[in-house]
Amino acid sequence: MRPAACQESHMPEIEQDSLATMRESGLKRFGNDSVTERELSVTEISRTIFKHKLLILLTALTVFGIITLRTLTMTPVYESAVRLQVDPSRSSSLGLDEMISQKLGGSDDINSVLQTEVKVIQSDTVAMRVIDSLELAKRPAFAGKYAASAKLTNPSAMPPADRQRLVSAFKQSLSVRVLPNTQIVEVLFRCTDPKLATDVANAVVEKYMQHTLQTRYEGTVQVSNWLSKQMDDLQTRATQSQQRLSEFQMKNNMIGADENDNITVDRLKLLNQQLTEAEADRIVKEARHRLAATRNPELLGTVDPNLQTLRTQEADLKAQLAQVSAKYGNGYPKLRELQTQLSKLNAAIADEVANVGRRMETEYQSAAKTEAALRNQFNKQKEEAFKLNEHAVQYLVLKHDVENSRDLYDTLQLKLKMAGVTAGLSSGYISIIDRAEIPATPVEPRIKRNLALGLFGGVIAGLLLAFGVEALDDTLSNSEELETCLALPVLCTIPTHQQQPPATSNSREAPKAVPLAPILLGSPRSQAAEAFRGLRTSLLLSSPDHEPKIITVVSSVPAEGKTTVSVNLASAFAQRGESVLLIDADLRRSTTHTHFGLPYSRYGTSTVLTRGMDERAIVTPLKSLPSLKLMPAGPHPPNPAELLGSKRMIELLESLSGEYERIIIDTPPVLSVADSLALSNIADAVVLVVRSRIARKRAVLRVRNLLRRSNANLVGIVFNGVDMLLEQYYYAKGSYYGKSMGNYYLSEDE
Asked: What CATH number does residue 678 fall under?
């Protein structure tokens, strides 16, 4: 074999430059996966969207169409609104608000009041009153299909289940809300009939106000009944008190006695007031005395200004002492001076604490003596009052009892009269601001909003479906994914290529589906042809020591284009001027000869291995490429794997290596039969053909592992049948093939 450097000199300059670029960027790719990790993530998303753009579009259009159809076929719904003002401060209860609130559990908080009124409007009681008054059970716009049967039934006599169904339907159409930062409550009702929506909204407010009036009336009546009972008891008490006072006056001959003329009682009151003040003063001074007993300067500073001043000076000296000590050290003269001042100040504080203690004790003892003296005088005056005017005191007690009973009776009598007036008044704290008017336009359906949501939802559904399909898709669809999965370089990417097939052979062994002729011959300027030339260059530089002479082409499963790659790869080497032999080693289903328009041959690889025929007599030259020759497969033997792995096969390849510069072997699929593995460890290089969106990850991984275990030199992957629009879109995001990949290939028209 020739050295690699020698072979590189024969390659066109453009191929060397392209391969150098691929090698450099390939090293970056496999050397550091984290360099483009974020870009790959964004690229994967973009690629998935581009790949499934038709699915996304169809899903979006379907969802949008359904939403549009649903929107256009919806029955218009109208909404009518009434606005109320709820202001408890304008209540007309004439002073009974507090009594009724306490009796019925009310609250003065305005927010609680508003929320309570909202719940009342939404109550079942109000709902049933509106349903009964407007006979909504008989209205098709409200009851729907149940309206016909409801016509024969009195709404109030309906079964509980039917009534509950009507109430639920009513509540679903009714909405009540408090406008923010206001006392305004908005009542809204929706219905397919605009007139009925207006009638119901107004009826709800009417029945709500009636219900509120009835509730407050019942509360007022309840308070009135309670007041009436209390009045009877108070009247009895007042009468009894007056009778006791009269009997006491008659018994003790007391006529016209007045406590204002009683000096003894006045003095007793004065002494009682002075005693109370003295007792309060003694309690305060006793507390201060107990505080002084603690001898705590910090506590005593709160009652003594001098001590508080000394404590402030002490804190300042301590701060200065800490500052000087930290700055100059303990030997600094100023520090000793400050310590001396602090000692003197502490002594002064101690003296002041002692003085405060003595002063507090003196004040406490003085207050205690004053209290004792006043208490003694009060007791004496009280005894004197009892002795001198015992009957007058009892008279005053009885008189006060009579007056209190009379005042309480008069107050409740006034409240009872007010309650009677309130019972006939309406609830004045609720007023209607705006009554419901017949709406001119429906609120549902909102066509623009629904169409926008339908379009947005359709796109989101399409994206979710696309990413779901992508997640479930186990096939390989781009070079980056393939390299990441197998940890092998992609030697070339072969696009899908359509070409008119050659005339079919009349041989009985010819397959039904006629394969294409070599692309390098039929479409030499196509992207696929350039891809095969790139594959040739990649293989020439795949080994740093020597060029691979025997190249085996394998695939995981049938229909991946393995034979097409073998034929075109052999043609690419032949166009370079090398003597090339293409061996059809697929002894089970051979199709190589059909690519060149050759008939089926009864002699080939199988006859050479089984009968020992001369291989030179079997090799078929090709007129289109004189330097390319074909060894067909021949008849199908019963034991292909044993033949391909035999010593005779090795000897055959060694013999042919001396005659040809390049040998390309087309083999059966690896996962179908074991024939390919027998040839893989003999070849200088093994190329794995993977077809886009057909090959599955697990299958390709299994093939790679099988080849490695058989010691095959798997140099790389040929990615076949690639949608170049998708591939170019993928790499345009920054892949190592470069953004100019789409302009690299020339079309046939160019």
From this structure: 3.40.50.300
pLDDT band for position 548 (cuts 50, 70, 90): very high
DSSP at 475? B
Nearest to 199 by CA among 467, 538, 437: 437
SS3 content of the chain, % helix, strand, coil (to 5): 65, 10, 25
- Do 418 and 494 sit in the same domain of this protein? no
Reading the block at residue 597, the tokens are 């328009």
Helix (H) or strand (E) holding 142, with range, is helix 140-143
Tokens read off for 285: 């001074």
Q: Do 297 and 388 reside in the same domain of the chain?
A: yes
* Whole-number Å distance between alpha carbons of 473 and 610: 44
* Position 580 in a domain: yes
Contact 598, 620 (CB under 8 A): yes
pLDDT in tens, 4-44: 333 333 344 434 444 444 444 443 444 433 333 434 467 77
689, 721 Cβ separation under 8 angstroms: no
> CB atoms < 10 A from the CB of 157, how many?
8
Task: Say if 91 falls within a structural domain.
Answer: no
Q: 550-555 and 78-86: which strand pairing?
A: unpaired
Q: How far apart are CA 527 and CA 524, in angstroms?
A: 9
Q: 573, 555, 646, 548: which is closest to 605 by C-alpha?
A: 646
In tens, the pLDDT along 563-603 reads: 999 999 999 999 999 999 999 999 888 888 888 888 888 88
Domains in the chain, number: 2
> What does each C-alpha distance from 493 to 471, 553, 646, 666, 688 come to in angstroms?
23, 15, 34, 19, 12
Question: Between 352 and 182, whose confidence is greater?
Answer: 182
Tell me what pLDDT residue 569 has: 92
Here the tokens at position 163 are 């009534």
DSSP string, 576-628: TT--EEEEE--SSS--HHHHTTPPP-S-SHHHHHHH---HHHH-EE-SS-TTE
Q: Which two tokens stand for residue 536?
A: 């040739």
Taking the complete model, does pTM exceed 0.85, yes or no?
no
pLDDT band at 144 (very low <50, low <70, confident <90, very high): low
- Mean pLDDT across the stretch 221-233? 70
Contacts of 597 (CB under 8 A, 6+ apart): 502, 503, 505, 517
- Domain housing 688: 489-741
> 371 and 494, same structural domain?
no
Closest to 185 (Cα-Cα) out of 429, 427, 426? 429
Structure tokens at 565: 């790659």
pLDDT in tens, 426-449: 456 788 888 988 988 888 888 889
Contact yes or no for 136/142 (Cβ under 8 A)? yes
CB 748 within 8 A of CB 525: yes
Full strand arrangement of the beta sheet holding 620-621: 490-495, 714-722, 685-691, 550-555, 662-666, 580-584, 628-631, 620-621
Higher pLDDT, 384 or 185: 185
Considering all CA atoms of the chain, what is the largest pairwise distance in Å, rounded to the nearest integer? Answer: 167
CB 686 within 8 A of CB 574: no
> Cα dist. 634→582, 654, 666 in Å?
14, 20, 13
